[in-house]
Amino acid sequence: MRVDFYQLSRDPVEQVVPLLARKALQAGQRLLVVSEDEERRAAISRALWSEGGAHFLAHGEAGEPHAARQPILLSETCTAPNEARMVVLADGRWREEAGGFERAFLLFDAAATQDARELWRSFRNREAIESHAWKQEGNGWTEVG
């Protein structure tokens, strides 16, 4: 499994998730976006819809009708009725269930940096996990680890 750590220093989660979602869809993947915070999920949903015209990112909320058909599914847990193999942990909190996906994106802000560093160090001892770290610089992202 691969885990990508995204340190958010400039853009909020609701701006970063649509970028990752678009990349996942372009790669032919389905995506699960996890946050326990209902307001954050609502903000992410608005951002996915406002991508503009024909380019909006179709999505739904877990527990709603047709959740299994959604290419992007928003949820408070790591259960993926849409059979996603990629998960975005949009609330900065690692869940061991994320280890069941092929790829996980952990988005965290400055307040969660120490927890992310400890998690990164713990993954060094786990052969089954390949970790990458990304930091916002200028207008883009730079891999830092």
From TrEMBL:
Originating organism: Qipengyuania benthica
Classification via InterPro entries: DNA_pol3_chi, PolIII_chi_sf
Keywords of this entry: Nucleotidyltransferase, Transferase
Cross-referenced Gene3D superfamilies: DNA polymerase III subunit chi
Root EC class: transferase
The protein's Enzyme Commission number: 2.7.7.7
Family matches, as SUPFAM superfamilies: DNA polymerase III chi subunit
Name used for this protein in its record: DNA polymerase III subunit chi
GO molecular function: DNA-directed DNA polymerase activity
Top-level taxon: Bacteria
